[in-house]
Amino acid sequence: MVSTGSTDGGAGGRRVFLASRNAKKLAEMRRILAEHMPDIEVLGLDDVASYDEPVEDQPTFAGNAMLKARAGLAATGLPTVADDSGLCVDALSGMPGVLSARWSGRPKDDDRNNALLLDQLHDVPDERRGAHFTCVVAFCAPWERELVVEGRMQGRVIRETRGSGGFGYDVLFEAAEELGRTTVELDLAAKDAISHRGRALREIAPQIATALA
Q: How far apart are CA 25 and CA 76, in angstroms?
């Protein structure tokens, strides 16, 4: 557990807090922010003193992301990044959307969510299985105006899971730029280049670098 309340990361480094304990999400953010700030230290929820995390009850990705970013800043005193993301399926009028992580109910379970989505789309023809992933990233710091950016990855939902690892609906989604491979089957560089989170992080990373300079 590290102390909070300062952006100094030691040895000239800087600290930023990502309000998540998802190891893959933390790794992705570290890779992308490091391109702009080689000495950046990204802390996750398991690296700071525990606090009451807000209920994600907002109707939009931006609302939930900002809710988490503000709560993280208030609890840690550190410049805070938070995101909210989900899958928006055309044939389901944009759902599951902000409900993506808990689409099949609680507790959250990726396998159950994927099974439910496939069942809901079982009679939808291939040409109507369009979808996109959305990620909104919010940034809050004591001395900086709040920042919000959005990234999208267009593609389609396939008819059966393929690949292993990843998280969420990765095993069911083919990006428009990589048809024939699910996003979980892409290497990290290829996924970072086209993913909704990668796009949002690359847009906000230089702004965070400027704020922490």
A: 20
What's the pLDDT score for residue 165?
A: 76
Cis bond upstream, residue 107 (ω within 30):
yes
13 in Cβ contact with 39 (< 8 Å): yes
Tokens of 193: 């280049």
Mean pLDDT of the residues in the chain: 90
Provide CB contacts within 8 A for 28, sequence distance 6+.
188, 192, 195, 197, 198, 201
In the chain, which residues have pLDDT < 50? Answer: 9-12
Residue 8 confidence (pLDDT)? 54
Is residue 73 within 8 Å of 127, Cβ to Cβ? Answer: no
Spatial distance between the Cα atoms of 45 and 49, rounded to a whole number of angstroms: 8
Residue type, 205: A
Give the residue from 162, 173, 195, 176 showing the smallest Cα distance to 24. Answer: 195
- Structural element, H or E, at residue 149: strand 144-157
Whether the CB-CB separation of 41 and 75 falls below 8 Å is answered with no
Strands 80-89 and 130-141: antiparallel
Cα of 144 vs its chain's centroid, Å? 22
Beta bridge partners of 80: 17, 140
Bridge-based pairing state of the strands 130-141 and 144-157: antiparallel
* Encoded amino acid at 46, one letter: D
Separation of alpha carbons 80 and 54, rounded Å: 14
3-class DSSP assignment, residue 154: strand
Residues annotated as part of the active site = 84
Interstrand relation of 14-18 and 80-89 (parallel, antiparallel or unpaired): parallel
